Amino acid sequence: xxxxxxxxxxxxxxxxxxxxxxxxxxxxxxxxxxxxxxxxxxxxxxxxxxxxxxxxxxxxxxxxxxxxxxxxxxxxxxxxxxxxxxxxxxxxxxxxxxxxxxxxxxxxxxxxxxxxxxxxxxxxxxxxxxxxxxxxxxxxxxxxxxxxxxxxxxxxxxxxxxxxxxxxxxxxxxxxxxxxxxxxxxxxxxxxxxxxxxxxxxxxxxxxxxxxxxxxxxxxxxxxxxxxxxxxxxxxxxxxxxxxxxxxxxxxxxxxxxxxxxxxxxxxxxxxxxxxxxxxxxxxxxxxxxxxxxxxxxxxxxxxxxxxxxxxxxxxxxxxxxxxxxxxxxxxxxxxxxxxxxxxxxxxxxxxxxxxxxxxxxxxxxxxxxxxxxxxxx
Length: 378
Hints:
- With 378 residues, the chain is α/β, with parallel strands linked by helices.
- It has one domain (2-11, 41-347): pyruvate-formate lyase- activating enzyme (Alpha-Beta Horseshoe).
- Helix content is 32%, strand content 12%.
- It is built from twelve helices and twelve strands.
- Strands 4-5-8-9-10-11-12 form a seven-stranded mixed sheet.
- Helix 6 (191-199) links the parallel strand 9 and strand 10 (203-208).
- The relative contact order is 0.15.
- Keywords: Iron, Iron-sulfur, Metal-binding.
């Protein structure tokens, strides 16, 4: 194996897609955009390439990396996002959704946005302590807050670590409002905390349902809850008095886009009271990962899918401009929005966000011994 200067831009998809890995969204640990070199395999005549390929496609195990976070509440700087703060108890996500816009964040950790993103999960084990310190500060002003914006706060490792639950315990103590977006049934565990807060107008939840097709879900979001299980979670949240909506995001043309109205209907029947949708986004390394996925699973549709995405993104694979990155532009983007509004109106689903209850906030007691600010990935 030799090393050569990096020649291929991150936005270029692989010419020959490799075999899928069972239970994982991506098939490779692709290099990230900050790497100065790339690896190129060279056949030495002893069959080493075949051996490497066999080893590479063994299902990789998930590794949890504990981190002591210096900060847990992130302020929103984007003018087209409707919340002010976000909390992400983890970095990376084992659900393995191939389209995840947060995959490129692993590049800042010198890890691959491909397999590393879904197999090397960073757990912010002191998240609750950091949150308590933040909320207790006289300088903190309560505003709208969303839990799990760049990672699913209820991904599988949460069952063992319980970081998200401890964060919610602090929010409950302080009477701080929050919303949560998830595609996991794990949120049901915390109904004892969430339901009483919902009764005070402090909580809303959104369950992400991208497809009703089990086969599509299995390759699109391999380790997330099955579609029927998500609808059951939505129903249980609604029955517990939690205002719950459905996120049909991302919408991928010719893949899950034909299901839009059926998903909204199923969600409304399960108890959803609101809905929103965002067209698929392909920032940085997500673009080649997604195009590789298309070639592996839908080769006959790949060109048509990408052509329609470009129609909604000003002729580009991705449009990062504020104001259009979450909506798209042009005829097809307008049509998607019209379909959502029409279906939502017919089903009685609201499409605007609920008002945030801030009047009940009380600063929690300061922790007796502040958590160490020193942390390490390895």
